[in-house]
Write a structure and sequence with these properties.
- By secondary structure, the chain is α+β, with helices and mostly antiparallel strands.
- It has a domain at 107-224.
- 47% of the residues lie in helices and 12% in strands.
- The chain has a four-stranded mixed β-sheet with strand order 1-2-3-4, with helices on both faces.
- β3 (167-174), α6 (181-197) and β4 form a beta-alpha-beta unit.
- The chain starts with 14 loop residues before the first helix and ends in a 6-residue tail after the last helix.
- The model has no long low-confidence stretch (mean pLDDT 79).
Length: 230
């Protein structure tokens, strides 16, 4: 039998095996790139941290500029009392932008203050600029809801019992501003609140002069429900 030289034949590569080889090689390349990017990111983070610590170590302390001495701070005092200590020991004394008002009452309210004082002297106590929420009380079940409705209102004057300070009469001075529609609506709401609470209200039209005797008669009639002569 004649000798035949059989050459070694390589296995035939199919399309599927060639495609899988390409995919594996691509995944390996991506893995290597991911590892190198992770290592480079770690080195960058370490470099930034070292640079930040080095800048902080070389930075000089920032001393405040020379100025007036700081207010005295007492560690044993806390809360509003500490703020009071700071204000009283400060240099300059005024740290906050507040100033005392020239007067508590407006010009119109000041005009009726003295006649009103003489009209009730020895009988009632006068309080001015009183919150409506301090004159009437709200039901406990829905106190927050009803308080929000009256929390921003106040009345001009309140006459109280000299012993118990119970509100007996509310006095409102009606000037030109009360003629505006919005102000009228507010006045009507206050009247309704006081009426519901059983507190009478005396609205005095603004004028140049007031008669203490006339004010006294009207006040007694509204508080007692009858004329003083009865």
């Amino acid at each position: 039998m004649p000798y035949r030289n059989y050459k070694h034949r390589k296995p035939r590569r199919t399309k599927q095996s060639h495609r899988s080889t390409i995919i594996k090689q691509g995944l390996a390349d991506e893995a290597v790139e991911g590892i190198f990017s992770l290592i480079s990111a770690m080195f960058r983070g370490i470099g930034r941290t070292i640079a930040l610590l080095w800048r902080k170590a070389l930075k000089k302390p920032n001393h405040p500029p020379p100025g007036p001495p700081l207010p005295y701070r007492d560690a044993s005092v806390a809360g509003p009392a500490r703020d009071l200590v700071q204000l009283t020991n400060a240099n300059p004394p005024a740290l906050l932008p507040y100033r005392r008002a020239s007067r508590l009452l407006s010009k119109g309210e000041w005009a009726i203050w003295h006649p009103l004082f003489h009209a009730v002297r020895g009988k009632y106590r006068i309080f001015c600029k009183v919150r409506l929420a301090d004159v009437v009380s709200c039901p406990r079940k829905s106190e927050r809801y009803w308080f929000r409705k009256i929390g921003r209102y106040h009345v001009d004057f309140v006459l109280c019992d000299p012993r118990s300070t119970m509100p007996l009469l509310v006095i409102e001075l009606d000037d030109r501003g009360h003629r505006q529609p919005k102000r009228k609506a507010h006045d009507e709401f206050k009247d309704a609140v006081l009426r519901a609470a059983g507190v009478p209200i005396y609205r005095v039209p603004a004028q140049q002069a007031y008669d203490p005797a006339e004010l006294s008669d009207s006040i007694e009639r509204l508080i007692t429900g009858s004329s003083p002569s009865d």
